[in-house]
Design a protein that fits this description.
The protein has 440 residues and is an alpha/beta fold. It has 2 domains: 268 residues, no CATH class; 60 residues, no CATH class. Helix content is 23%, strand content 38%. The chain is built from 10 helices and 20 strands. The strands form 2 sheets. Strands 1, 4, 5, 7, 9, 11, 13, 15, 17 and 19 form a 10-stranded mixed β-sheet that branches. A 10-stranded mixed β-sheet has the order 3-2-6-8-10-12-14-16-18-20, with helices on one face.
Length: 440
């Protein structure tokens, strides 16, 4: 229990509370107060907690990150943002935890689709926000959720109505510019019955030490189809917590692609609850270099029969980097005919790199098909030798095999601009010799 650090944040809370969005809403004030009490009592998560046993957030506790009270135009550099903006997409930009209408692009967005900042939604659609906020992300689960609930300064609200099929993706672009800054955002994404959409979360920042704490609650209604992408490429000095919490209705389809590249210490939670005959696919790639610590925590809960889930996460770790994968599948007693497969594969490029993997199956039904697989190892020497026998030098052979291992996950991205953006991130972190870009 880290009460000292929690007390410091709680003491500072009074300075920002009056300017947080939704001050006139009693239900939100009560929710924030409850979250503040929970965080003050628990502090940040500790390795003594089973779900955090591999990730120590002591480095976050040593600093007191300061939230931005409002958006400052001086914080914005449109040219710096350009490489991270997708061309053929609706783009919503958050700077230091606040929505920027000037940098956002919503031209030709269908009128029936509601896309706005969380601050605006709390004014224009408070009843709808109340219906969803805090119902997918349980703040009692761990204190980072409670922290976000109390401190969120803004966020985004996306509602796709029934039968609406979006022909372009929606990009939620989060950037942090300040040193020792804190960007705490809360997003709600709703896809109503038979709607189809693709949403992209992008996290980037200046070369500073800062904290990103973002929570996204996702609701996929009956027969809806939602794909959520996340590319986290924060500063190598930054700290990141990002949680995606998904509620799927009957026959709903949800796919998540998680790419974790940045941050000195980064943690992603992806938790999905599946209803009758719903489908869930989780894909992930994490690349660690230097002394990065990248933690991925997934949980898929099968609540009703006939649901299908597939999960594949890959990690490539070099230098003294550490990667963590904790994947858990829960099959409830009523979830007969469940079909679930989970795999985690890790490639270590250095003797000092470390991978901690913990797959879990928790099954209470008796008519199911579930399995998991895990691998942790180095490049296959036989494969290297084979390439050498075809006149490829050893270094090039290793580069080619490493790239092929990671590129399987990149190729799952079918949005061309995002695919190229992710590919650049992969090539920037590992040697490129021997890779012909014309093949990509």
């Amino acid at each position: 229990m880290t009460t000292a650090t929690a007390s410091r944040y709680a003491a500072e809370y009074s300075t920002i509370a009056p300017v947080l969005p939704g001050q006139t809403l009693p239900w939100l004030n009560a929710l924030r107060a409850e979250a503040l009490i929970a965080f003050s009592a628990q502090g940040f998560p500790s390795p003594r907690e089973e779900e955090w046993r591999y990730t120590n957030v002591l480095a976050i506790e040593k600093k007191l990150f300061s939230p931005s009270i409002s958006l400052n135009a001086a914080d914005i550099d449109a040219d710096w943002l350009k490489p991270y903006r997708l061309e053929n997409a609706w783009v919503l930009v958050l700077v230091n935890g606040h929505f920027s209408a000037e940098l956002s692009v919503l031209t030709d967005l269908p009128e029936a689709v509601s896309v706005m900042s969380m601050a605006e939604a709390l004014v224009k659609q408070p009843d709808k926000v109340e219906k969803y906020l805090g119902t997918a992300a349980d703040q009692s689960e761990h204190s980072f959720i409670a922290f976000n609930t109390a401190w969120f300064t803004d966020g985004l609200f996306v509602h796709i109505p029934a039968k609406q099929v979006l022909d372009k993706p929606i990009q939620l672009l989060h950037i942090v510019t300040g040193a020792d800054a804190m960007a705490t955002t809360r997003n709600i994404i709703i896809a109503d019955e038979m709607a189809e959409a693709k949403v992209i979360e992008t996290f980037v920042g200046a070369d500073n030490a800062y904290l990103t704490a973002a929570v996204t609650e996702v609701f996929v209604r009956q027969n809806a189809d939602l794909t959520l992408y996340k590319m986290q490429s924060e500063s190598e000095k930054a700290y990141h917590f990002g949680g995606s919490y998904i509620k799927q209705a009957r026959d709903a389809r949800f796919t998540h692609h998680n790419f974790a590249f940045g941050g000195l210490l980064a943690r992603s939670d992806i938790h999905a609850d599946l209803d009758h005959a719903s489908e869930c696919e989780l894909n992930g790639l994490y690349l660690g270099i230097k002394r990065q610590h990248i933690d991925n925590h997934t949980r898929i809960t099968h609540l009703k029969p006939y649901a299908i889930s597939r999960e594949l996460y890959k990690g490539v770790l070099d230098d003294r980097a550490r990667g963590v994968f904790q994947g858990r599948v829960i099959v409830a007693i009523d979830a007969q005919k469940t079909d679930s497969q989970m795999n985690n594969r890790n490639l270590l490029l250095s003797d000092d790199a470390e991978a901690d993997t913990k797959p879990q199956l928790e099954i209470y039904a008796d008519d199911v098909k579930c399995g998991h697989g895990v691998t942790v190892g180095q490049l296959d020497e036989k494969s290297i030798f084979y390439l050498q026998s075809r006149c490829v030098d050893e270094e090039t052979a290793r580069n080619m095999l490493t790239f092929a291992f990671a590129n399987e996950m990149v190729d799952k991205v079918k949005i061309r601009g995002l695919h190229d953006m992710i590919l650049e991130q992969v090539l920037a972190r590992f040697p490129q010799e021997g890779i012909n870009k014309e093949w990509l």
